[in-house]
Amino acid sequence: MNEAAVRQKIAELTRMLQAAPVAKNAKNAKNAAGAGVYVPAEAPAGQSLPQKLDELRLQLNYLLFDLEATRRENRYLMQMLESRRNPKRGEDDLQSF
Known about the structure:
The chain is mostly helical.
């Protein structure tokens, strides 16, 4: 998944969160979770919409950080596989990671 697709999915989820009703009981929470919307078991009382959006932004930043780390790891592992297939390349290419 590329960055543009991730950003589009984030925007779609943000719209869904803003339009979704707050789950009043476990059954509604299950239905919302089945639709791909994260509903915490117990939402903190007194949290305003800007605070919730700030929390969501923080969670998205962690998600994007993890995505980038996964990409770097994938690149490194692909280089390792390539060096096994093509022993002429040597270890110098892995150092450029």
